[in-house]
Amino acid sequence: MSSGSIEGHAEDAPDFVQLNDLASETVGGKVLFASDDFFAPAENLLKRQPPEFKADLFTEYGKWMDGWETRRKRIPGHDWCVIQLGVPGIIHGFDVDTRFFTGNYAPAIAVQAANLNQGEVPEFPPRINKMGTAFSEEEFEAVCKLGSDAWEHLLPLMETKAGYPETSHNYYPIKSEQRWTHVRLNIYPDGGIARFRVFGIAQRDWSATGENDLVDLVAMVNGGVSLGFSNAHFGHPRNLIGTERAKDMGDGWETARRLDRPPVLKVDDQGILQVGGCEWTVFRLGHSGVITHIEIDTNHFKGNFPDSCKIDACVLTPQEEKEQIAQKWNTKNFKWKPLLPVSKLSPHKRHFFESVALECHDVITHVRLTMAPDGGVSRMRLWGFPRDLPSTKG
């Protein structure tokens, strides 16, 4: 199901890395089992933050490493771990990041996956203070019940590159339309990986949702996804649709300061800053629908919140979406229509906008959030009713 590997710098990354990380610890991803955690535990694979290197830091087991690192294997077999995705969904690609693992990286990997219901997952003992250990008998008994060695291979055995800046990101596109809940990361035969990103789109069963059920239609867990943005210097806009409230500023969308700001700032009679520049990001909803309530949360952004924001909406076919992505959403006179008018924002606060404040009450599929002039927003919630698009048949 893989179409090969791509290696290189993060800035040369394939398009799938703009999607949601379904395995991140921030959305509930967790390690159920690891064959070995001697130098560094497998939980590090799922950290949101980029890996660090501390040259002079050692543990009682060896060099401290910010990743998953197993001991040099002296018995038959290879190392592996089982990860429960925080959000089940369709996987579009993997990023196996070997950063800082130069003489100790895992030289090859493979990935298997399964779609399991809750009753098929046995209870695992808690993984606490795993450094310096291998699996226990109790853990092995639990993982054997999963039968993960027989799971479907999404990625066959593939070579990885060492964790130098120019080669640390090992990208693997995946062609799969199936929903997955768990993955098994195999490393051959042993070694270290800093981060393991599972990029994809959540898949929700909408048949169980009534047309009068109020749903956050853009939420990651409901299939919402970021499709483009003007700037993401400090934080990616996909964080806006994450689960729960943001943990810190790094868990939101934050841009660089715009350099085209006027030397002296002025406001209009509504208190809105008069600036020429702005930043934007586009999302596809998890399901087409009618938006009735909006929340814009600037939690943690106290000295760097935007002055104002607005939201536009439209309906796009899959082909139109593909064309806009290729054009980086720069099409002039595009069919955006106002959903939320320009609205003043405050620092470190949840802003709620009711239906009477909204200007579009039609079924939509995509939204564009614009902030002015720049800054950070932690969450965007678009509550509404799922609706199918009107039929175009005559």
- What does the main sheet amount to? 9 strands, antiparallel
Unreliable stretches covering 5 or more consecutive residues = none
> Could you give the order of the helices and strands?
EEEEEEEEHEEEEEEEEEEHEEEEE
User: How does the helix and strand content classify structurally?
Assistant: mainly beta
How many H/I helical runs? Answer: 2
* Strand percentage: 35-45%
Broad shape: globular
Q: Radius of gyration in whole Å, from Cα?
A: 23 Å
Helix share bin: under 10%
The tally of beta strands, per DSSP, is 23
Provide the residue-averaged pLDDT.
95
User: N-to-C terminal Cα separation, in Å?
Assistant: 39 Å
How would you describe this protein?
With 394 residues, this protein is mostly beta strands. 4% of the residues lie in helices and 36% in strands. It contains two helices and 23 strands. The strands form five sheets. Strands 1, 2, 3, 7, 8, 9, 10, 11 and 13 form a nine-stranded antiparallel beta sheet that branches. Strands 14, 15, 17, 18, 19, 20, 21 and 23 form an eight-stranded antiparallel beta sheet that branches. A two-stranded antiparallel sheet has the order 4-5. The chain is globular, with a radius of gyration of 23 Å.
